[in-house]
Design a protein that fits this description.
heterodimer; A: mainly alpha; B: mainly alpha
Chain lengths: 152, 91
């Protein structure tokens, strides 16, 4: 019966908002320390993609709880949806670019699955490991043939 | 002016996020490769979105949240276009 006594809704709102914001800031701090301390580009990127996305989401949820308005909630849900969709896409694109640019892996990373994938797709002989390059070289060879026909 | 626990929490959150920004800037300066700098830029954008959110809450001015919407759009566009550019110049 003590619980049903007068609860100050404003203060309750502030406490919930504070908990969300502190959790979000904690995840941001963990992600940043991961970015600074982890040994290799791919591990660092995995740390910040998960940690920073969750941290931003929690901070914005705390903001939504504080304002307690539909218009604010719609804007914040728009940002959260956008961040949750785009952060993995951006991480995927950058990691793919890094593999093509031969950014080195950590020496203790287990790469057997990656190497079997490259072998299966016949990419292990490629310099950059990309199919796009093969197409480009095919076009170049065709152009050279045409030029030879013109002159000959 | 007495500060309640809510404002103290927000100011602590602001300080921690500013510290995160500083650590990210160190990684941005260290590198060692260009994709490292692109991901550090990504984290800087996420940190600034968090700082804008906390500033919105601290000042009770809800116009600032539009800045966070635009920033989340442009951060994604920036990192993807930079990755695309990086993919093309190494061909």
């Amino acid at each position: 019966m003590i619980l049903t006594a007068n609860i100050d809704m404003g203060q309750l709102k502030e406490i919930i908002s504070c908990v969300f914001i502190l959790l979000g800031v904690f995840f941001m701090l963990v992600a940043t320390i991961g970015l600074l301390r982890l040994p290799d580009f791919y591990i660092r990127m995995s740390a910040i993609t998960k940690g920073a996305t969750l941290g931003v989401g929690l901070i914005l949820l705390g903001l939504a709880v504080h304002f307690n308005k539909p218009s604010m909630l719609v804007k914040i849900l728009a940002i959260i949806t956008f961040v949750f969709i785009t952060a993995p896409v951006a991480a995927h694109v950058i990691a793919r670019t890094a593999v093509q640019n031969k950014i080195p892996f950590w020496d203790r990373t287990n790469l057997t699955e990656f190497r079997t994938y490259l072998h299966r797709e016949h990419l292990d002989g490629e310099v950059n490991g990309d199919k796009y390059k093969e197409e480009k070289e095919g076009e170049k060879a065709k152009m050279n043939e045409e030029r030879a026909e013109d002159t000959g | 002016m007495s500060m309640n626990i809510f404002e103290i929490t927000l100011i602590i959150a602001m300080i921690v996020l500013s510290f995160c920004l500083l650590l990210t800037a160190i990684r941005f300066a260290l590198g060692p490769s260009l994709p490292d700098r692109v991901t550090a830029f990504d984290l800087i954008v996420a940190n600034v979105i968090g700082i804008i959110a906390i500033y919105t809450e601290l000042t009770d001015n809800e116009d600032f949240i539009d800045v966070a919407i635009i920033l989340s759009l442009f951060g994604f566009l920036g990192s993807v276009s930079f990755a695309y550019y990086l993919m093309r110049i190494t061909k």
